[in-house]
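step: validate -> pass
step: tokenize input -> pass
step: predict -> running
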Amino acid sequence: MDGRELRVAAIQMSSTPNKEENLKTAERLIRDAVSAGAELVALPELWSCHGLEKVYCENAEPVPGPTTDFLGDLARELGVYVLGGSILEAIFGSERLHNTSTFFEPSGEMAAVYRKVHLFDVKVSGKEYLESRTISPGEEIVTAKAGPAVLGLSVCYDVRFPELYRLLALRGAEILAVPAAFTLQTGKDHWEMLLRARAVENQAFVVAPAQWGQKADGRWTYGRSMIVDPWGTVLAQCPDRDGYALATLDLDYLERLRTEFPVLANRRPEAYPW
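step: predict -> pass
step: emit ->
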């Protein structure tokens, strides 16, 4: 890493219910991104199994477990930071699961675990999505050190809840991770808008790896994985295929922006008590 810069890749996949197939795709894309210079690589939501709710329980596993071992081994071999998007975490004694994001240091150590707080229970274009049918929400806000930066963890639907990101920023987050599987219907109108809003209002970089394409249950995900800077400028974006968005995050620029345009410092919490 050069000074206060970090080269980051947001990986885009179209995952299937076949975990073995997904792990092979993820490894190939991670290796490609690292070969292109990435120092931090981020995977999308439910990258190891996606598309059929009925196989989610079959593919769930503990954290730590085989899939997190796989990610830790890759991080250590390649000498990079790895954000494990999210996977399905088994909960001892419960039929429900967690939608869990993990973060690994170049040593291979799992440095952070975040369980998705906001669950996607909505109707979109006549289709019902009930994430709470299989998923139990998390309760903790999580940050982690990623080289010269502080990373704030979140997952997909969380992006519609700005209070989470403000708390991450107040805890020092300079990069906001938003691994996702946005629906096509919502993504085409809201994905970029929400990511840029979270970046601007918190003066932070946003790294958003995403699922794309049609899934095994017939539903479509939007894709367009992207990296956004603190001014709201899209630095990199994926086309509609497997791949990655790659950008260098200038953390010195972020520091100058927060000093010269001190939005976070100008807050007046005494005027809006919870």
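step: describe -> The mean pLDDT is 96.
step: cleanup -> pass
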